[in-house]
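Q: Joint fold for the lines below.
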Amino acid sequence: MRVGIVNVTGYAGAELARILARHPGVELTEVTGRSAAGQPLASVFPHLAPLGLTIKPELEKVDFAFSALPHVTSAEVIPGMLKDGLRVVDISGDFRLKDPAEYKQYYGHDHPAPELLKEAVFGLPELHGAEIPGANLIANPGCYPTSAILGLAPLVALSSRDFIVDSKSGISGAGRTMKLNVNHYCEVNESVMAYGLDGHRHQPEIAQELDGVLQRATGERGVDVTFIPHIVPMTRGILSACYARLQEDVSQPQLMELYREFYFGQPFVQVVDAPPQSKHTWGSNFCIIHPHARGGGRVVVISCLDNLVKGAAGQAVQNMNLMLGLRPDMGLEALPIYP
Amino acid sequence: MRVGIVNVTGYAGAELARILARHPGVELTEVTGRSAAGQPLASVFPHLAPLGLTIKPELEKVDFAFSALPHVTSAEVIPGMLKDGLRVVDISGDFRLKDPAEYKQYYGHDHPAPELLKEAVFGLPELHGAEIPGANLIANPGCYPTSAILGLAPLVALSSRDFIVDSKSGISGAGRTMKLNVNHYCEVNESVMAYGLDGHRHQPEIAQELDGVLQRATGERGVDVTFIPHIVPMTRGILSACYARLQEDVSQPQLMELYREFYFGQPFVQVVDAPPQSKHTWGSNFCIIHPHARGGGRVVVISCLDNLVKGAAGQAVQNMNLMLGLRPDMGLEALPIYP
Amino acid sequence: MRVGIVNVTGYAGAELARILARHPGVELTEVTGRSAAGQPLASVFPHLAPLGLTIKPELEKVDFAFSALPHVTSAEVIPGMLKDGLRVVDISGDFRLKDPAEYKQYYGHDHPAPELLKEAVFGLPELHGAEIPGANLIANPGCYPTSAILGLAPLVALSSRDFIVDSKSGISGAGRTMKLNVNHYCEVNESVMAYGLDGHRHQPEIAQELDGVLQRATGERGVDVTFIPHIVPMTRGILSACYARLQEDVSQPQLMELYREFYFGQPFVQVVDAPPQSKHTWGSNFCIIHPHARGGGRVVVISCLDNLVKGAAGQAVQNMNLMLGLRPDMGLEALPIYP
Amino acid sequence: MRVGIVNVTGYAGAELARILARHPGVELTEVTGRSAAGQPLASVFPHLAPLGLTIKPELEKVDFAFSALPHVTSAEVIPGMLKDGLRVVDISGDFRLKDPAEYKQYYGHDHPAPELLKEAVFGLPELHGAEIPGANLIANPGCYPTSAILGLAPLVALSSRDFIVDSKSGISGAGRTMKLNVNHYCEVNESVMAYGLDGHRHQPEIAQELDGVLQRATGERGVDVTFIPHIVPMTRGILSACYARLQEDVSQPQLMELYREFYFGQPFVQVVDAPPQSKHTWGSNFCIIHPHARGGGRVVVISCLDNLVKGAAGQAVQNMNLMLGLRPDMGLEALPIYP
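A: Joint structure:
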């Protein structure tokens, strides 16, 4: 099976290449990138030199593709890829929100391919594992939403439906394109800041999926999510503190049991007894979750992952594995690198 | 006026020495520290070499003292200092909680000097400015509480009284004593983690002071505070995201006006229009606050400061200035160092 | 005395503003910056909000100016300023090299004002303290050269004249303008790299000044300097390891004595007994030097400073103080901030 | 083949476990650690939880062992392991120096097993690849020496034999045991410092091996190495700048050719055209080398690696592969993780 990466020149694209390079079930044969077309991949990313690939302007002969294009552009290009018979995992945010009006509100653009929104599957295997194998187009979830949805899904149906998600992300989440206030070393090092207070585009993504969980459990919809992301001075990692109020109080053992059952058999979710550090996931596809009952029905859930792996490229490969009928963890077995 | 520092060998003590060294209204003449007694201060802290001080076992001839001792020890030593006629600012947590039972619950020890709890003034000048000049014993507030209380005080009386405080702190907050999981470089670098989920001792301090604000405004008490601190990989700085629900919705301009009025004339509180970075306060005594109305009565307040200055040594000097009738900002005029 | 800063929008300009804001002998009344003209200084640098200044397109009514313009532009603008009667400290590299051919080789441009090269004084007070008070134009030294020249000057005349300078700099030295490989957080964090192997423009500056020291001592010229700069993941600070071979071996006490005598009375050079950390200088105008005799005539000198203070803005203010007959350390008394 | 790790509780031990956990040719069945015996490995290192191992007091039934014990202790324990028929790779420094007097000078202790010094092979595969397969005891090289020896070996015979090695290391090199001035976050973050000026124990190791190269090429001995290590604020990585003077000048192409030939066929040495960043090796077993001819016979070689992989655990596994007749890169195929 030959696979290709469209727009390999960002961090998600490079991370896909790193993982696929050692994947035993597929062969990474092509990578593209407009501005860098014609250059060796090694000249953009020296750590990928052992692949020996040259960046092309377009994919040519692959059977499966990952799009790491920016949003809007991705949705413009994907319909043609599907017509050519490719199956596609889209890393951009273009096919995550089911409502094109919400897409327009948060992405500032009419959706370029609204007809595909229904068939696209939201690629969070722990919630949509049954739909992924048959899909031709996967909307790979956002990094923040992956941590928040996995953190809150087990207790949505038991809760007051009013959630606060306070997330802390490393700086690679802002991409490789330079922006003074979010990735100039001197501006962000030794500092923490909140941003997106007016409404980050990952907020409706979290709400949509929690609403889906609620609806499947109770038939109702209507969660309220307050989501505040922060930038902290580290390269990789997201840790979200998710605050909920339950309708009835639970004990800590009951809460642990709830989470352990919910994620039973999931290879990449670890439910743990003590608050994790985000770096316990560095370079791996794990999402580590620690739920904590504080009494009075107040629950705080700490959920962390590597934003470029389970929050992007690793989850994309996990989706590909499911689509191709491979072991879910094929190519993703590496342990986190610590320290 | 001769001033002394008891236990100069931690970070709060060193920061006090740095500020007092250039304070035009007092003279730092003595510093103590048991294990390092007899050594030049420069051998423990090379950056303080220009002071030319030697560490003593005990204070001898000063008129005013700062205690940077650990809790419990501080409360054991301070009664004797007061009897000797010293006025004292206590950097430890010993005299912050008014209720000795709460002290025992959170500090794990009977209070060594409960008879002083009434006369000790909680040294947050923005709330207790009237009581500080006449006090002989100031309980200097904790670093997290300073950011949280200043962030929430203006809207306590208008709120549902149910608050979430999600704080992110640099690593100097954990002190100079080595602890593998909180200040070994390799364990905390490139990582973020939550801790204190079972109840951090700064939680009752925040609740006590917000309750006080509520009571002065409405005659009632009874706030509920969920406080979750996090460690982020930076040396200095705290940024708290404070979540509240108001009884009636407010517009963003109304909210800004509320905060600007509340802190009018306060030299060290800056109410700003955009979310600040914690490093905008580095090395200075400023607390920068950005309140944000999200609709539906939901308010998020971002509040940040330098944990060793406004969160410890700088606020202690501010308290001293008020006690001695000096300009409130004397010795604290330095601008933040950026980047 | 009214002073102004031309091009305040970079890090050296902002650091000048921070220092001058609290300088008791002069008043910072004007700051300029082309792209940001008309904006409040606080909108570019929130930490400078307390100054209340607005960025102007040009200086108007000042008596003394600092140019923080990029090289070439600085030398184009300064002749006019001098004609207008201003005295000027130039932070750029334009007037440091005395030989316009060398300037062309290293800066890639004909010198815009070669007639001023003779009257410009190289503003390293420890070497040229006698010439600075009478100068109208000061070429403020580069950050790397300040550390290297101060580190090696005392032993040039005793040495084999073949020097290696291996320097490590924080990232603010590369400026505020974004460049992917030198200041994008994710590209430089958790990494160290050498650069400028083909010849960094600070190399002839170091060689020129060491040659000057040699000539004044022996009448000869002809030092050989191999200079390799490195970028390390920190915001501020330079630490240089300077390697020399002496004609005759010296003991460690003899070496210390040599350095202590050479810098006797200099307020900003500390000669110390143990290898310093660069952060012992953070925010201060100190250069800390530790010379080490290894036997066989091999000497290693460790020299460190804050690249934005003694390596740029602080040294510029020190030069201004000397030009105006003020105390050399006026406005520069602040101790380093640690940790 | 069952393998075990003695003293898994430090960083080198943990990194061995991480690599061996996914090694297809051997099975990691036992790990030991005295103070933590009886605990699950996951309680010390959560990222190793998927191994499901419990820490034992002693090895029991393995065929091959890695000793990650501290020096002296390692040499006390290894003779018994060899007698029990185990083949051993020693990560400590105990068997690297061939001269027991030099060992005593640098390690401050009589060598516990001098009779084994002759049979122990210095496990740098690029120099001693022929001797490693037949060895029962491998002295795994130090992290700094690996970077320095690989950087200088190709030109020793052509040089003046007087070398300066200026190395920059991340903080994991100082181990997991807490030491205030080398691994307390606040003391080392945002700082760089030189140490070991009186003679670091890796200096004789570098000299011994370069002398060996010289002797094999020319029959002579007698290199002079000045080695100065520095700590820079990052977790992993070493970058060494190695300074040499050649007897005759070479061009840059000649120099590149010399290095490419010397390392032809070596799977883990990359000779590259531009100065590398240390993070291009993060998590991988690569050593990246960039030699640079500066004219006049002056050569600077930049050499970098991950101190815990090629500088410790990865090289140990590479040695094991050679001893067991496996592919040299088995279990070490993972690409570096970037950014």
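Q: Anything notable?
A: The mean pLDDT of chain B is 97. The first strand of chain B starts at residue 2 and ends at 6.
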